[in-house]
Write a structure and sequence with these properties.
Strand content: under 5%
Order of helices and strands: HHHHHHEEHHE
Number of helices: 8
Distance between the termini: 28 Å
Number of domains: 2
Number of strands: 3
Structural class: mainly alpha
Radius of gyration: 21 Å
Largest sheet: 3 strands, mixed
């Protein structure tokens, strides 16, 4: 598995159009959703893997819990600021009086809430290495949603090599992420997390 620098943050533009095209081509299936959503979900998988690899699952879970609390806080903040605006705008007057040119408060909190609503805050409770969770749990969810196919595993009847649309998808995604991962590792991860085996 590739080494991880805890101080290096994942690049939100990690996957360009060529990378996405190679991942889709590897499956030999049509993409059933939009490219932007596909890119966003793949980058989210990479960020989860990066966080688990650098800091461990406990830190990842703690960070997700913090974001969930912040999302609730933002929703409450929007509601309270709207009530304040409909009443006497005490909060916003206070903000304006001491804000030194700060932008209006309500639009900022609304924007934060919108961004947090788009964030995937689902936690993964499965046990395994970061690479196993990436290829056995997260990437299968992305594959199933965007290709409308179950993430099954299969082998070539002649060579017995691991293959099939999902295995090729996960292998190519890892390659684009710069993560070393064999097809056998993907098969093992999927078996551990309940994948069905099929014949090619």
């Amino acid at each position: 598995m590739a080494s991880v620098d805890p101080g290096k943050q994942p690049d939100v533009e990690l996957l360009d159009q060529d990378s996405l095209d190679r991942i889709v081509a590897a499956t030999k299936l049509p993409l059933c959703t939009d490219q932007k959503g596909f890119q966003r979900d793949l980058v989210a998988c990479y960020k989860h893997w990066h966080l688990w690899s650098a800091f461990g699952p406990r830190a990842a879970k703690k960070g997700i819990a913090r974001l969930a609390k912040l999302r609730r806080w933002a929703a409450d903040g929007v509601r309270l600021l709207k009530e304040d605006d409909a009443d006497h705008a005490h909060i916003q007057e206070l903000w304006a009086a001491h804000g030194d040119g700060y932008p209006p408060l309500l639009p900022q909190v609304e924007k934060l809430g919108t961004l947090l609503e788009k964030a995937n805050l689902n936690t993964v409770e499965h046990v395994g290495s970061p690479l196993e969770l990436l290829t056995g749990v997260l990437l299968p969810q992305v594959f199933a949603y965007h290709f409308k196919k179950e993430a099954k595993i299969s082998r070539d009847p002649g060579t017995h090599q691991a293959g099939g649309p999902y295995v090729r998808f996960a292998a190519q995604a890892c390659a684009e992420f710069g993560i070393q991962c064999s097809r056998e590792t993907i098969v093992s991860a999927r078996k551990r997390h309940g994948a069905k085996a099929v014949r090619n």
